[in-house]
Amino acid sequence: MKSICFRTDVLPLKDVLYRLALRITQKHEEAEDVVQDTMMKVWNKRDDLGAIESIEAYCLTVCRNLALDKLRAKSRQNEPLDAEHLETPDLGGSPYEQMLQKDRIALVRQMVNSLPEKQRSCMQLRDFEGKSYKEIASILNISEDQVKVNIFRARQAIKQKYQQIEGYGL
Asked: Which of 13, 25, 41, 76 sits between 20 and 30 A of 5, alpha carbons compared?
């Protein structure tokens, strides 16, 4: 049984947990509440954490489940993220190029937000958090093949929507 220190093993995960909760709830305040609830739930289980193989996977699973519970309770699905609070990369270039890049980023965010929850979660964990297929399968309690299929479908859906909009305009 290994020793888990809440301060060094769990607290550093708060940003990853927040991004996952935000991707699911699509509300900053609700995501913050989910992270706080996750931390409290993990703190209450602190005596049993030594038996857990991956504390990160455990925390992400708790966070995901709490976020989904909150989403179901509020019955708010697929509302867009408030783009003004999200980090935007340094775009460089002329003001026109910056505007085009910001519009493209907003468009892709909107497309990701419109995906079904499982595809959105898989894509978030893989493409934005850098998790392995095995870790995602463990967090979402699905098989690695299901993870791969969900990621493939999510990417295909976004690619098709993006090409359609870029090709035909809005």
From this structure: 25
